[in-house]
Each structure stands twice: as structure tokens, then as C-alpha cells.
């Protein structure tokens, strides 16, 4: 008897962690960390219905401007995000947009600002199981471009929307980020730090999927403007705008033929 190959064993079946099966999700899946934010996304979808809610993974599927779109929460950190992407891919999802919260690392980023990633510094352990140390964690170019264009369009209509594009860090330990560590990240010119994108980007690269990320700034780790209690109105606005940007990016991606270019 040979050793179990999890990858081949689970393809096309009901998935162990997300409790989904083929036909439950569209090819486009938004990936918030928080299960409650899945419900925020559902408000923008036509005929949205909750498919499953198991562990940290809540999933809804509906449509946006005629395109089937799903949303699945990943929970916190790369291990659970990796499981979500692997299992969603096993049942047919191919395009993933992380819609997250993030800590800013540069003084000019403020609460509620949007940050679109062009690559993640791999300060976590999960991706080491997939690739060698020097392998880059980068999003899909065309899906990221669609996010940038969508965000710029939103900013043109609303001057209060601030959009930043650049590199981020993905860390494992929220409370392990010492002031020295944060200063190192800032000095490297990274815009922000979060806990999931490196795994999402690497797995997408390995499995020939498409992935990207837009996040709302939940606090600035350099200036000390953070929200650790309650819900800040600017952060909520940032979440809503990130969702809007993601959904409009999907429409642009479909309508402008980005898939064929990739």
C-alpha cells in the first residue's frame, strides 16, 4: 500500500475542510479572512446563498453583473488560507482575490486606504512546504492590473478613496511582530503586512491559477494609529470599497480579455 497522495485523492470530491463540492462555487472567489465579511460581500451579489459554513470557512455564491462569483473566508494565517485555496481549486475555482485587512508600514498610509499587492515578502512557514526559499510570492499580473484600474476608477469618482500599489509582507505571528521587526519591514519599503497572501500567491503559481489582493488599512504600525477594539468607520468604508473594487475588477477582467492575454 502506497502513501496517500492528498492532492489527487481530493480533486473533484466534497472537500474535507470547506465542505464544498463541484458546482458550489464559480471560477471567481473572493477571499476575506473573516467569515462575517463574507456576508458583506453577499450584499453585492444577486441571488446570493450560503453554501457552507464549516470551521473558519464560510462560503456564499451569487452573481455580479451576470458573472458567477463566490466568497469563502480563509480564517487567519497562511495554513488555513492554503487549505481554502487548495480545496476551492479542487472543485473548479481558478481565480482568487484576497479582500483583506492589513497593517500599514509607511507613514502616508491611513485607516481605510486601499493597498493592492504586487508581491509578498515570505515571512511565514507555509510556503516552504511548496517551494524553495528564493521562490517569489507574486500575484497574477492581469488580475492585479484589473484591480488597479478598478480602484483608480473608484478614486476618480470619489476623492476620499486613496489607493496604494506595491509590495507587502506576509507574517505568521501577529503578536510576534516586535518594533524591531516592524522597522525592518518599513526600512525595506514595504507598504503593508498581513497574514495570508504569500500562500495564496504561491499556490496559485504552482497550480496555474490566478490570484491577486486588495486590502483595507486597519491600522498603521509606524504611526501607532490602530484599531484593536470596536469597529472604525473608516475601516468599514475600506472593506466596502475593497469589495467593490474586487467585483468591478472581475467585470473588467472578463470584458477586456485579460484571460486570453494570460
Structure commentary:
There is one protein chain. The protein is α/β, with parallel strands linked by helices and 262 residues long. The chain has a single domain, classed as Rossmann fold (3-Layer(aba) Sandwich), CATH 3.40.50. It contains 8 helices and 9 strands. A 5-stranded mixed beta barrel has the order 5-8-7-6-9. A hairpin with a 2-residue loop joins strand 3 and strand 4. The chain is globular, with a radius of gyration of 17 Å. The mean pLDDT is 94.
Q: What is the CATH superfamily label?
A: Nucleoside phosphorylase domain
In CATH, the topology is named: Rossmann fold
What's the CATH class label? Alpha Beta
What spatial order of strands do you see in the largest sheet?
Answer: 5-8-7-6-9
From the spread of the alpha carbons, the general shape counts as globular
| Total number of beta strands | 9
How would you sum up the major sheet?
A: 5 strands, mixed, barrel
What Rg do the Cα atoms give? 17 Å
Number of domains: 1
CATH architecture: 3-Layer(aba) Sandwich
Poorly predicted residue ranges: none
List the helices and strands in order: HEHEEEHEEHEHEHEHH
Question: Helical segment tally?
Answer: 8
Average pLDDT: 94
Structural class: alpha/beta
Helix content, binned percent:
25-40%
Query: How far do the termini sit from each other?
Result: 41 Å
Concise summary:
The chain has about 260 residues and is of the alpha/beta class.
